[in-house]
Write a structure and sequence with these properties.
mainly beta; five-stranded mixed sheet; three-stranded antiparallel sheet; 1 helix; 12 strands; 49% strand; rod-shaped
Length: 138
Amino acid sequence: MALDEAANTNATLPTIVTLDNMTPTAKILAPDEGQIIGGPCSISFRHYDANLKNATLRIAAVVYNVTDVTEFTLDTTELIDGNYTITLTVIDNAGNVVDETVTITVDNTDPEVSMINSADLNGAELTGIVVIELNVSD
């Protein structure tokens, strides 16, 4: 404590500081790296930090707050077919950051099947071994 001649005082109070050099943890449990998915997809993950600030999932430039959950349902029908990176970002109050990513392929397009030799078989009475030629694409 400091005291001047006019009886003014200045006291310095103790300051408590939390030193945090630990990086948070982040792990995407599902889907797996390279998995092909369609329709509703459950994304499960875990994250931890003693001084957690927030956790987010980023998918196709959209960010979702997942600080208080460990599972998120993604409706892939809202995305066009293709490759996407899912990023789980965890930040603590000291500014330490960790990212965990997996890349998935969204495929909501049904495969197409057509018969190549349908004109040859149309209306024909079939006996014995018949070869049916199909064209399948996805």
